Amino acid sequence: MLVNAWMSWVGGVDLVAMSKESLQMPNVIVHVAQIVHTPIGSAPSGMILLPDETGMPKVMGFVSTDKNVGAYFGPNIFAGTPFENAPVLDAEIEVEIGENSARVSVKIENYEIVSELSELGELKAANREPVNLPFYDHSLESAAGEVKLTVNGEEISIFLPPVGMSGGPAAVVSSCGIYSR
Known about the structure:
The chain is mainly beta.
């Protein structure tokens, strides 16, 4: 397989959820890593999608402490998806990973988003081919048994789909991995 674009990470914490149980597709994403490596540089980075009260996006974009790294994701990794032209949002990103839990804090203009995953399962290797997303996913991940999301200090009700966007669990701590296409 010829690789045209790639990104790798260490210390990933990923949450994909729905704001309403009746939704067909997830509309909540907090997908962040302690450090993301790309061909153009490395920085704490990820992606955010938060809905408003109607379920439509109120915050959507790539988050990074380095705008150049953040700008790499859309046209290179997420080309052909709704995130292809998503903006890059300046962010402060903190990722803490413990033995059985992880906590992510992302501060962007007007928002502090905190995702907490706990009751982590066994560490497993994931080797997923492109199905819902246009890239291969090779990673090590532990599924979360409990999830909590707060925005500006207010807990947000979320519903986890049985399967996340990549075909694996909807809430995981991924110690390392790579996306390639």
